[in-house]
Amino acid sequence: MPLSYRELVQGLQRLGLPAGKPVIAHASLKSFGEVRGGAETLLGALLGVFPHLMMPTHTYQTMLIPEEGPADNAIQYGSGRDQNAMAVFFTPDLPADPLMGILPEVLRKHPQAKRSTHPILSFAGVGVDETLTTQTLAEPLAPIRVLNEEEGWVLLLGVDHTVNTSIHYAEKLAGRRQFVRWALTPGGVVECPGFPGCSLGFEKAAPLLQAVTRETMIGTARVRALPLTEMTGLLVAALQEDPLAFLCDDPTCERCAATRQALARE
């Protein structure tokens, strides 16, 4: 039987999150199995339980690779001529990258949704208008900082920590290396500092975070919720103890390699 709106709401309520707290969500619709009404039903259930909801609506399709730039930036300058030719201009109505999944795009198009204006790392949400306005080119993770200050929650709906954008905020607080990227906008090419590292090793943090994780099953989806402040505190402490923690194991990963090299020099 397909999951109904009521079953989704009841499952989300089982998590027992404090009423009114903002939530940043990451979701895989297919992880739930069949949902009656699809992504719109899942989004409706989320907003019914969490009226202050934010999701990343990143747009990697705007990115360019220049011929030259700052050193030790985990990028091969001059290698993106084909990619650059296919880059698109960022506009507020540019669809979220398909890598984000279907739900962020459905949220972006919600009649009450607002979206931040970062040309690569935008967020969209309902009931988080002021939070979204804090994002700047210099501080792309500012909306997560605000949710952290407001004791918000991270919600993982059928996905793992490799898509948990908030871990990047903990990396920043711990002093982990950030990068520079470039994006195409109607006003020209803009430099985007504060670009985070690789997230493919983030599921390594799951055992550390288990103590503050609430979990339930909704249909076939494993749903986890974590208090952002406690999660961030645990991660920052772990990164300060082991600056190599949560890096991925792919030897070809440029960002993780650059982080290791920077730490080795220090």
Automatic annotation (TrEMBL):
One of its GO terms (biological process) is response to antibiotic. Its EC number is 2.3.1.-. One of its GO terms (molecular function) is aminoglycoside 3-N-acetyltransferase activity. It comes from the Bacteria. Keywords: Acyltransferase, Antibiotic resistance, Transferase. The keyword Acyltransferase applies. This is Aminoglycoside N(3)-acetyltransferase. It is an enzyme of class 2 (transferase). Belongs to the antibiotic N-acetyltransferase family.
